[in-house]
From TrEMBL:
Coiled coil ranges: 127-161
One of the record's GO molecular function terms: glutathione dehydrogenase (ascorbate) activity
Domain GST C-terminal span(s) in chain numbering: 105-234
InterPro entries assigned to the protein according to its UniProt record, in alphabetical order: Glutathione-S-Trfase_C-like, Glutathione-S-Trfase_C_sf, Glutathione_S-Trfase, Glutathione_S-Trfase_N, GST_omega, GST_Omega/HSP26, Thioredoxin-like_sf
Organism field: Tetranychus urticae (Two-spotted spider mite)
Keyword Transferase: yes
Family the entry assigns: Belongs to the GST superfamily. Omega family.
Protein known as: Glutathione S-transferase omega 1
Annotated GO CC locations: cytoplasm
Sequence ranges assigned to domain GST N-terminal in this UniProt record: 23-101
Gene3D superfamilies in UniProt: 1.20.1050.10, Glutaredoxin (3.40.30.10)
Keywords: Coiled coil, Oxidoreductase, Transferase
Pfam families registered for this protein in UniProt: GST_N_3
């Protein structure tokens, strides 16, 4: 599953930059990267025409390192305009056209950044633990469960249906989702059986599970994000 997607990405074997429509902006990155996904979700929500050039993060082509010497993804290029860092790119994209991904209330909008800063690192605990070569599987699972408990507590305290609204997802939801969606696939990769069904996740972390289910229904999430099965398949080859 994951290998089929990676075959379409550009790796060290890719010798030349692919042809793209130069009349629209281009995002370079990987759908397996939560930071790239932030940009792709934003582009979808706002219906912004764009090119996407997939980059093999474990084997980047030389031509990519020439146009983006840091090798970071995501990377935005639009004519002579170039940007890195996912939130910088997202906020640039948000200024290009309506609808905005931010709520209208200035205070609620400002709070969104604080929510992302609080929740996103906790959600990233899963993938960081998966990549930790020194920890045992038991230690990795234990650390992830602690992060899940904290996340569930945080979500239980949120009084709105979404992170910034009762009506629809906004900035904080989309920017946090791309790390949250990694948790269950990582635990499946670690063969932790308690996360092989939505029922078991709901029983263990009800507030978090309710939110995950809600966000999974978002049209943009469904169009852009990969399935848990594909993500788990990718994590198994890291």
């Amino acid at each position: 599953m994951a290998q089929e997607i990676l075959k379409s990405y550009h790796s060290k074997d890719s010798k030349v930059h692919p042809s793209v429509d130069e009349s629209v902006l281009t995002i370079y990155g990987s759908k397996f990267c939560p930071f790239t996904q932030r940009c792709l979700i934003t582009l979808d929500v706002k219906h912004i025409p764009h090119n996407f050039v997939g980059i093999d993060l474990m084997n980047k082509p030389d031509w990519y390192l020439q146009i983006c010497p840091t090798g970071k993804v995501p990377f935005l290029k639009e004519g002579d305009k170039e940007l890195t860092e996912s939130l910088v790119i997202v906020n640039y994209l948000d200024e290009l056209k309506q609808p905005t991904i931010h709520p209208a209330d200035p205070y609620v909008k400002a709070r969104g950044s604080l929510i992302v800063d609080e929740l996103f690192p906790l959600a990233l605990t899963a993938i960081k633990n998966l990549k930790n070569k020194e920890a045992t599987v038991e230690q990795k699972i234990d650390d992830i469960k602690k992060a899940l408990a904290k996340l569930d507590e945080k979500f239980s305290q949120i009084k709105t249906k979404y992170l910034q609204s009762d009506e629809q997802p906004y900035y904080a939801d989309y920017m946090t989702w791309t790390a949250l969606e990694m948790i269950v696939p990582v635990l499946r990769t670690l063969n932790y059986p308690s996360f092989n069904s939505e029922k078991e996740l709901t029983e263990a972390y009800p507030s978090l599970a309710k939110y995950l289910h809600l966000m999974s229904q978002s049209p943009s999430i469904q169009r852009i994000c990969l399935s848990p099965e594909v993500l788990a398949d990718y994590y198994s080859i890291l």
